[in-house]
Amino acid sequence: MGAAAAGAGKPNLIIVLTDDQGYADVAANGGADVRTPNIDRLAAEGMLFANMRANCTVCSPSRAALLTGRYPDRVGVPGVIRTRPQDSWGYFDPTVPTLAGRLKEAGYHTALIGKWHLGLEAPNLPNQRGFDFFHGFLGDMMDSYTTHLREGRNYMRRNAEVIEPEGHATDLFTAWACDYLQERARERRPFFLYLAYNAPHFPVEPPAEWLERVRARAPQMPERRAKNVAFVEHLDAGVGRVLAALDKAGLAGDTLVAFLSDNGGSLPHGQCNDPWRDGKQSHYDGGLRVPFLVRWPSVVAAGARCEYAGQSFDLFPTFLEAAGLAPGEGLDAVSLMPALQGRAMPDGPRDLYFVRREGGPAYGGKSYEALIRGDWKLLQNSPYAPLELYHLKTDPQETNNRVAAESQVAAELAAALRGHIRRGGAVAWQAGADRGAP
Fold first, then answer.
1. pLDDT in tens, 121-160
2. Which of 89, 213, 288, 336 is 20 to 30 A from 315, comparing alpha carbons?
3. Dihedral angle sign, alpha carbons of residues 261, 265, 270, 273
4. Pick the catalytic residue: 117, 201, 269, 283?
5. What is the value of pTM for the model shown?
6. Chain mean pLDDT for the chain
7. Can you list the domains of the chain with their CATH numbers?
8. Annotated catalytic residue 283
9. Which member of 59, 178, 272, 306 is catalytic?
10. Is-catalytic flag, 117?
C-alpha cells in the first residue's frame, strides 16, 4: 500500500490527458496500425469507456470543463486561449472552483505537469488555480518539441520560475511526473497529479529512432501516418514509465488513474478517429469521441467495459466522490462512480452540449454548437452553416442528415440548444477592454 494513500485513507488521483490523440490511435480502441501496450494496460487492468466524448473539439474549452465540471462557456472558455490576445477566444473565470482547488482544500497535494493552456498571467496561473506544484508549459502549443518555444517566446515554467530544459517535451513531462511520484511516496498525504502531455498535437515530431521502428515494420505506411504512429508510440512509452514509477513507489494499488484525450485527432496530421466521421474542430463524432480509460485496482474490475455516453468533465465529480467530497453546486457533469463500481449509471435524460468559438474568416469570432439528446444529435460545424440532425443509433457515421424529415425533433433540440447558449452568454469570455483588440 502506498504511503500517501495509507496515511489519509483516500485514494491518490491521476489524470493523464493527451492532446489531439485520435480515438483509434489507441490499440484498445481498435487501432490496427498503432502499438500502445501501456495505454492498453490501463484498459486491461481497468475499465474502457467506449462512448465518451470530449467537451469540445479543441484544447482550452475541454481543459476548462475538465477542471471545473461545467460546460466551458459557463466558465468563460468557449474557445481557445492563445498567446496573442487578438487570437484568444476565452478567459478562464477565476471565481470558479477547480478540481485541484477542491482537492487541495481536502488535504491533497496537487500538481500539474505538462500543458496548462488556460491563461498566461494572474489570476489564471496554475499555482493560483489550485495547484501546489506546476512544472510545465503555460501556452497553447510548441513550435517544436525540442525548443519548447511558442512564436519565439518561452512559456516553460517550474511554478513561477522561467526554465530552459533540454530534451523532447514528452520525455521531460514523463521524467518530471516520475520524479513527482517518487517524492509523493515519501509523504503520508494523498495527491492529485494532472499530467497533461502536449503530444501528439502538431508539429508531429517523434524522435528519429521511434519513426525508424515504424518504418521498418510498416514500410508501406504513408509518411504522414507513420510519423503520427511513431509519435503516439513514443507517448505510450512515457505513459509506461509513469505506470512503472507508480509500481516502484508502491502507489499503484491505491491510485485511480484516468486516461483520455482532450478532443479528436487532427486528420491533416495523420491522426485516426475510426470509425467516426471527421476530426478535430468538427462536431461530427470524429472530433468529439476520445479514448477514455480508468484504472482503480481496489474498485474497478479488470477488463471492464462501459457503454455510457458521457463527457470528459464527468471526471470532476467522479474524482471528488472518490476523495469523499460532495460535488458542489452548479455542476453540469455527472459522476461515473456507479459505472466504476459495476453498477448502472442513472438512466434519466441527459443533454450533452458542445460549443466552440473561433476567429478567422471561417468563423468570424462567432460560436457554433451541437447537442445530443438520446439518439438524436443536432449540430453545425460553422456559425454560418445550417443545422444538421442525425440519428446516432441507426446512423453512427452521421451520413444521413434528417433535419428536414424530422423537423419537430430538430425544433425541440434547437430550443434546448438556445437555452444552453443563453446560459453561457451570462459569462464573460474576455477580460479587460483591450483584450481581442485588432
1. 999 999 999 999 999 999 999 999 999 999 999 999 999 9
2. 89
3. positive
4. 117
5. 0.96
6. 95
7. 3-340 (3.40.720.10), 351-424 (3.30.1120.10)
8. no
9. 59
10. yes
